[in-house]
Amino acid sequence: MTGGKLDLTDPRDAERFILENTRPIAPPLVPEITLRLAEESLPIWQKTEDELGELNVPPPYWAFAWAGGQAVSRYLLDNQDICRGLPAFDLGSGSGISAIAAAKAGASHVVAADIDPLALAACAVNAAANAVTLYTTDRDMLSAAPPRESIVIVGDLFYERELAERVLRFIDDAKNEGCSVYIGDPRRSYFPEGKFTPLAEYQVPVTRELEDFEIKRTTVWRA
Asked: What pairs with residue 36 in β-bridges?
């Protein structure tokens, strides 16, 4: 830490920020996983902006268990034949909840991808807390070739138009590479209706601060 600001090139700083601003919480739909999450949204949003704004760090999406991530994680844990013995790739991993679920479901090798260095630090902290191994990458995978013959997990990534368009292209490319793609999404603003096959629906407890609801109806889909 330099001059009171976090140095994100130092993993100890990122981990310290996470531990100081979150507490261990079991997401309600996936109680067998424990994550370092924020209890309130405004304080950590403000602190991230104050301490990291000049570094152009994204908002702290990693500090919350979003409905789509919880739903797809529940589905993978309840249907472990999907992941067992196969590599898995979690796009926009955030807290790492879906990557951890894939590892617990028996995936042979799990990669958590996120462009936010704090999210990757959170993935590492949360993986250790759940006694699983994750590999992380900060590469913008939406501008790269997708993995081949893997389980690809997409949780809650259809909330912005440009992002949604890039995610859709990635999903199509992943399918062309022999991947099976599982999506958890509560029909965010830019979710492509009619494109995917619904597999299961969940009533996910969420925080009203973030969602304006206490329960978010969320579907798991296959591309």
From this structure: 24
d(CA 219, CA 19): 31
Element (H, E) at 88: strand 87-91
Which residues are within 8 A (CB) of 47 and not within 5 positions of it... i.e. 6 or more apart?
21
Concatenated DSSP letters for 182-199? EEEES--TT--TTSSEEE
pTM: 0.94
Residue 130 has pLDDT above 70, yes or no: yes
Please give the backbone phi and psi of residue 65, each rounded to the nearest 5 degrees, phi first: -95, 90
Note the pLDDT tens digit of each residue in 134-144. Answer: 999 999 999 99
For residue 85, with 0-12 CB atoms within 10 Å meaning exposed, 13-18 middle and 19 or more buried, which class applies?
Answer: exposed
Q: Say if strands 87-91 and 180-185 run parallel, antiparallel, or are unpaired.
A: unpaired
- Sequence ranges of the domains in the chain: 11-62, 65-222
Q: Which burial class, exposed, middle or buried, applies to 71 when counting CB atoms under 10 A from its CB (0-12, 13-18, 19+)?
A: buried
Cα–Cα distance between 108 and 69 in angstroms, integer? 20
Alpha helices, DSSP H only, in 63-191? 67-78, 97-104, 117-129, 161-176
DSSP code for 145: P
Q: Could you tell me which CATH number the domain at 65-222 has?
A: 3.40.50.150
